[in-house]
Amino acid sequence: MLGLMFRHAKSHKGLIPLFVFIGAGSIGATMYLLRLALRNPDVSWNHKNNPEPWNDIAPNQQYKFFAVNMDYSKLKKNRPDF
Questions:
Q1: pLDDT digits over 37-49, tens only?
Q2: Where is the chain membrane-spanning (predicted)?
């Protein structure tokens, strides 16, 4: 299948940018899903050692990928300890 893609790309030069952008988009989407699965505090993979990982987040720790107009270093703790 990969050889077929290379043969088509050699004969039709207009397909090269299509293959590049589709490949980059697929890799980017996969990397983002892996980041969500591994770094998001809403996902708990180990229920025995850390059943509620969202309680271990410091109030000034940024866990979002992109935050608009939010300075996490100035946030104060306004929740109880459990």
A1: 887 777 777 778 7
A2: 15-38
